[in-house]
Known about the structure:
Structural class: mainly alpha
Radius of gyration: 20 Å
Strand content: under 5%
Order of helices and strands: HHHHHHHHHHHH
Number of strands: 0
Number of domains: 1
Amino acid sequence: MSVSTYPTTPALPGRATNMTTNFSRILKGEWTKVRTLPSTWRTAVFALVFSIGTGAVLVISQASQWHTMTPAQHATFDATSCSLFGIMIAAVLLGSLALRSVTAEYASGMIRSTFTAMPTRRLVLAGKAAIVAAFAFPVVLVSNFVAFEIGQRIFAAKHLQVTLGHPGVLTAIIFGAVAVSLIAVIGVGLGGVIRHTAGATAAMAVVIVGGVTFGQLLPASLRGYLPGTALQAAVTVHRSPGILTPGTAIVVLGVYAAIALAAASIRASHRDA
Length: 273
């Protein structure tokens, strides 16, 4: 591919206003793209159903095994985290939706029209990231509340339930939604760097699920900083060694999101679509 260069525009009065106007146009355009695709709403429904269902399955399993657990397992039991375990599924599905918002345009060639209409490519990617993150947040927030309520009703049979008023519970529910929104931004970044749906989707799966699986090979002090482990930490109330606090987990995911989006922006700025 050839290298595209753009002249540097000197700072002028009103330039900031123009940038704001352009970004507003980008947001409107990206929202139109996202909301008019049937796959967007199917993905949202799948994320809701599978995340709630996965959490319920784990809750049932944990409740049925309670009397066989060790005292150490009882001490670290986290009714909130169990209920919200399906957030991993939501992250993979919505992260994949986010990367497709980029790779689909590269595959169809539509990205050329997008960059022609709005030459500030970094703003385009930032707009895509903002829209998919804003879309993911309420979807996951709803699924988290529903999954939590279902989980606690199941745990109530064993007197293991907690309520929204328990310390850290509401934070876990909200931070879980924030965490998946950041995963969506990472998805946009991966899509912009890899530009192929299959490759970017595989990378997303490795980032979230693979990181949790293979992270067991790393020291506990490093394992917590992997994206998938940080995602789990965001919905954890009772922390065990090596698990980040929810706030730190959000910061870690934010750093990953910034790096991924910056990498995609650099590639988009230096190479033609």
